Each structure stands twice: as structure tokens, then as C-alpha cells.
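Predict the holo structure. Ligand: 1,6-di-O-phosphono-beta-D-fructofuranose.
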Amino acid sequence: MELSPLQKARYEYQPKLPGMLRNGIADICVKEGKATESVADQDKIKALFPNTYGKPEITFEKGQNTAAAKKQVVGVILSGGQAPGGHNVITGLYDALKATNKDNVLYGFKGGPDGLLKNDYVVFDDAFIDAYRNTGGFDIIGSGRTKLETKEQFDIVAKNAKENGLTAIVIIGGDDSNTNAATLAEYMAANNTGVQVIGCPKTIDGDLKNEDIEASFGFDTATKTYAEIVGNIERDANSAKKYWHFVKVMGRSASHVALETALKTQPNICLIGEEVAAKKMSLASIASYIADSVEARSKTEGNFGVAIIPEGIVEFVPEFSVLIKEINELLAGTKTEEFNALPNWDAKYDFIKKGLTAESFAVFDILPTGIQQQLFLERDPHGNVQVSLIESEKLFSELVKAELNKRKAAGTYTGKFSALHHFLGYEGRCAFPSNFDADYCYSLGYNAFMLISYGYTGYLSKVSNLSKPAEEWVAGGMPITKMMNMERRNGEDKPVIRKALVELDGKPFKYFEANRERWAKETAFTYPGAIQYYGPSEVCDLTTVTLSLEKG
Ligand code: FBP
């Protein structure tokens, strides 16, 4: 592998651990807190997790290590989408494991949960691990999206674990993967396998957070990367003064990534899906809101601006969700073949007009033709519309253009509107982790091993007090069942970790709300620049604006 100068330099970076983990393994003792309860549906969760429910919160402290001396053979997987810092969770886990006992072994199961099912693994050694310290990506062992949830799958994992002599499995993943980690932990305990299961909170989306988990790893680096690019686009827009840039950012359903990027860059517009849903906004009202900014700015600042659109936005527009449901029904079963056999788009358009309710057809009819076709042509294996593929940045710029044309015809708008489109997602998921993510991830991994060595299972590695310097971070663990409630998934009630959406009464959104009117009219752009790895702490060790506002 050819090494860039930054990569060479990052190999030398020593991630910072929370103060209580810094004195060496022999001086880490454990303090158990109160027994926990799940956030809701306590009786049901307790009944489903009889062996792992109600366990206490754990905090580590400086003091004599009293963990039982036992050789540990640990397996680790990366699960779901890439997030910067995943490699450091593994290096932290490895370092703690080897510092405890040189004979301890770390297996990396390849390609996500599939690796556990296929018994496909590598055994890490120093040289292997050293090549991935402080680097982005999940390429150390790869990742995957297979869900580990059935008894048959758990039987296979248990068999493979036994064959390899595993004492513990660490699952690095998002809300779904950690829900599955809790179920696997319960299975392993119920069947007396002796295999512990520990989770680590990952996702750039920032939606795995709650009163215990302050942030998922990767959110910091990914949003810094997107903010750098949005800031550069803003500066280009302000230089040329001739384009409106519509920038879609990843984040799946929740708008945390869009909000954080906006807090860092102060664009003219940032849509927040959760607000759109709460206010039951229509496509037309959103387009009109953006057009107001375009019109106002055309009179004062010029015909340019920047709008951030969260990836999941359309699902939050009530009339659009109804339209999607109707389309899914319209093409259910054999009707897809009937639709596909129609000779051209005009014939298909007539079929659609006849099949949708008048209200949904009105929504469909204002969409640009490209988006209309996308709704019918790109379906998932179950025949459903693939909402995530909808190019919402283009959708909204087209709707804004149509609205401005109406205003032009009415003589109220005389500006020019020329739109450019961007989609930021994959650009941020494998960036070199920021110092924050490098430190946080290493600490999560190190801490995960401490939970293993003290015999805990069904816990999420927890590092908190994150808005403070790493020295003051608090390391410990929280039973995953504490974060669970029952939700309807695919027609069944399931125990799951609740997904965190943007809270409209939370401080990050409130700050945005208090400022966005000014940002919509003025050119108040801020240019965060690239992530800095070396230099003054106030530049290099910044956490997210979201976290600093939430923690005051
Ligand atoms: P996770 O929830 O698994 O962390 O993945 C997040 C994410 O990056 C989303 O923001 C995005 O919608 C999705 O993954 C893209 O998935 P894929 O990598 O399969 O294209």
C-alpha cells in the first residue's frame, strides 16, 4: 500500500483515552450503578430478555483491577454503513486486549455479520493492526448489512464461536445492529454458551443517541467533511454570484447531518424533515418558502445562494408519503407487469392518472417528469418505490423554478434562477477520522474490552461527557435493553433501540430556528475549512455544534 504523508503522520498519532483508563489495565476498577429499566414497555422487554434485562449501569474508575484472569478470544465485526473511526474501535479493542494478556486473541470477522455466519475471519497481529491506526474506512475487515436476528442464524454464530473458542463478540454498528447485539447476547446467555456480546455506537447519521449515548461515532468527521465542502461551495457562490446550489446530504431519515452542516456553514436554506412532518408542510409550501429567499436575495445580495436538503426529506412530506403508498398499491402483484408492458410514457401516465386518487395525482402532477419516472421505474425487490433514490435536490430546485416562473408572470419577481446540484454522502463516510472521532473510537474499543474482561454482556460501550476534553470523559457501559422499546416493524411488534430524530424543542434546532430568517436573506455564510489534525486545540479538537449546544 502506497502511503500519503498524512497517513504516515496519522500512524504516529496516539489517541487520547478518558482519564480513568489512562493509568494502565492493572489500575482500572469497576463501579456498578443502579439497576436499569428499559425506556418504555418494561414488562414486554423484560419478558423477552430475561437473562440480560435490568442490569446495572457501569462506570470505570482508577483503582485495582479485580477482573478474573482468563484468556480472552474476542471476535469483532463492523456492521452497516461506513463511519470514520471504525478502525480505531478495533485498534483500541486490540490494544486493551493485548495489554491485559499477550495470549489474548482478536478475530476480525469479514464483511459484517456474514463473516460470523460463514466463519470467515482474520486473526489480528501487531503489523496488521498498525497499518490501520487512525485511518478512515472499514476496509480492515469490510462491513455488511445482513441482519443477525433469527434463531437459525444465532445457532450458526454460536457453533462458529464454539469452534473458535470465542469468549466474546463485539458488534460495531447502528441502532439495528445493536438491537441485534442485545438479542444475540440474550441468546448466548440463555444457552449458556459463555460468549459475551458488547456493542459500540456507530453511524454518521447521528440517530443513535439517547440519554446515555451522547453521540454515535463518525458523525463528527462526516459532518466536518460535508461542512468543508458546503463552505467551499458557499464561497464559490458568493464569488460568482450566479448560481443557487442545492446540496443533498446523507443521513437516512433523520436530519441531524443536515442540521449540523447548516449550523457550521449558515446557508440560506436548510430543510429539516422532522419540522416538515410536524408542520405537515406540502411540497408547494416548501418550494414557496425557498422561493421567498431566492426572491428576497435577488433584490439585495444577488441571484445566488445555498440550500441544504436532508436525504430523507420526502418521506416527511405527508402528501408525498400518501402518494408513495398509493403507488406501491397501484403496482402491487401482477400490475407491475401490466404497467411495464405499456408502450410509452404517455400510456403509463394515463394508467397512473386513472389509478391514483385525485389528491395524490395532483401531487404527482407537480413533480418534474424525471422524478415522476423515477418513482415508477426504480423499485426495490418487493416492488416498492425506492424513496432514498429520489433526487430531492433536483425535485426542490425544479419546484422552486416553477414557483419563480409564476411570480415572474405575475410581475413580482424579476431575478434570474440558475440551479446546480450536489449530493454529499460517500465523501464523508471514510474520511480520516477527526481527532475527536479518533479518540472517541479508540476509547470505545478499549472500553469494550474492559466490559468483556469484567464479564458483562448485552452492554453498549459508553463514553460520555464528550463535550469536555478527553481527560474528563467518563468510560463505562449501559445495558442495551435500557435503550429499548417495542415498535411495529414489518407488521410485528419488535423490541428495538429507539431511533433519535431531530428534536424540535432541542437546543440545536432552536438555535437554527432563531437564526435562519436572517441567513435566508443575508449572506451570512461561514467557511469551516478542512478538518485540522495538527495545530491549536481550539481548531483541532472541536466537537460538533450539535453536541456543544446540547451540553450547553
Ligand atoms: P448506517 O445507518 O448503517 O450507519 O448507514 C448510514 C448511511 O450512510 C445513510 O446515511 C445512508 O442512507 C445509507 O447509509 C447508504 O447506504 P449504502 O451504503 O448501503 O448505500
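The chain has a mean pLDDT of 95. The pocket of 1,6-di-O-phosphono-beta-D-fructofuranose is lined by residues 80-81, 83, 174, 203-205, 250-252, 311, 388, 429 (CB under 6 Å).
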